């Protein structure tokens, strides 16, 4: 799941992790090369003195003040705090550590023309904090195990380049109310968030490696005109967060941003777009109408599919797994989400502030937080979904006129939530019924709208209570999901040594898990099982080995879905086909004529040869006499 190291991520990052461990293991040895120094506080250009750790320079562009080589314990004060300066200076090759939450490693406030380089910063506060500053550089530092890595507030034209920002408990880099800053070639790994750009326009984020951050890789919140190019993501991606169109459609996000090697596609200001079957690391859609998304497989990113200001969209037959959101939808009306699979995400399906939605026939499972979270939505139908093994099953939050029915809601820590009550309906009336609940304990002995008529009807006799003012009046006694549908035309007879390829079309609303062919070869007493492979669309294929002897081959097909329902074709017994010995084909009339003529010619030739031989022998006898 999102934020957890998966095997492939571990393999890809093993070299980097090993390097980091080596750095951390060597900290005491490295620290011994530094000279201990008390915390440094400089206020104004006049504060750049040897007593405050300055080791050289005069404060000009070509000869900046140098502060280097110090080890500073930040447990009682900020390691370094520089205020109100515009002289040029460089902090380099320092080691600041042991800060508490109230004390940061390095603080720059109202500072311009400063540079922090090649330093190791680790503590409980912020690694580097910049406020009300401009034209500063943060380059080639290791910033690890802090509360925040780098914090940038009310600052402009800051260049943050080639830093290792790792394992900080909150954001690797947090930017707020800060415009026109550059973030390039950084390694940002293992933080809570990678880069959070908040209320900040014109950010340039290029060429970074962003991996395994628990929440977002890059989060652009209430920000415009970001340029995001050529970044490499593992278990991360880009997440857009706001409530006005320009914060979504003003960015430049190019396909050379890769999630585990697959491109991020960003579409904006379009209509009628059809995204079908492409290989994608992430799909971002902003300010587009009537978009159709289908047949995608996305894994290990932020929002696998994000649709914002996208009325009339349809998302179908796609799979998103191990991501922060399976699908995130906001400010988008008349949207259909159907026959998708959302597995192992933090949030499965998350529509917010959108109306007239249809969420149907999806498989939503193993979400760390919510299977379906519906926030501030109106007129939504949630039906025919399999919602299982999530922390929260179906969660209605300030949403109204929602109808929830024919879902299988199984094994969630909390099956459901509805803070509005009578404004929503958790069933489809009688006799259609409500939902299947795995923790429903009622019985089915009666039927009818009031469940007072003798005889069972597949509906529980008592309501399933969600809370004091929400209930499913007609809980189903069995899962709603139907088994897979197998369509197959039996194979015809064959001859020995002829290939036998079995094909079938298999569909299922919850998702086909596996299809198997069971066959009994000529002369065999038991069936052999072989998995059928999906070829195109819903077609599955498997091959029965060539039969070398005549006889009968028996076979049948079975399929299971993600819910565990099973189907068989045929429902009972087996299909059979005959394997025949190859016979010589009958001769045509022309062939027979040719054979007769050839035979006659051969006979004539034989007679001529015999006569010739006889005459030769007779002549020889005459000569002897």
Properties at a glance:
18-stranded mixed beta sheet; single chain; Immunoglobulin-like; about 625 residues; 9-stranded parallel beta sheet; mainly beta; disordered N terminus; flat
Topology:
Elements: H1 7-25, H2 27-31, E1 35-37, E2 40-43, E3 65-68, E4 70-73, E5 80-85, E6 89-92, E7 95-97, E8 106-111, E9 114-117, E10 120-122, E11 126-131, E12 137-139, E13 142-144, E14 148-153, E15 159-161, E16 164-166, E17 171-176, E18 182-184, E19 187-189, E20 193-198, E21 204-206, E22 209-211, E23 218-221, E24 227-229, E25 232-234, E26 238-241, H3 246-249, E27 252-253, E28 258-259, E29 262-268, E30 274-276, E31 282-286, E32 292-294, E33 297-299, E34 303-308, E35 314-316, E36 319-321, E37 325-330, E38 336-338, E39 341-343, E40 347-352, E41 355-360, E42 363-365, E43 370-375, E44 378-383, E45 386-388, E46 392-397, E47 400-405, E48 408-410, E49 414-418, E50 436-437, E51 446-447, E52 453-454, E53 464-467, E54 470-472, E55 485-487, E56 494-495, E57 500-507, E58 512-520, E59 528-531, E60 533-534, E61 539-544, E62 551-561, E63 566-569, E64 575-580, H4 589-624
In brief:
By secondary structure, the chain is mainly β. Helix content is 10%, strand content 43%.
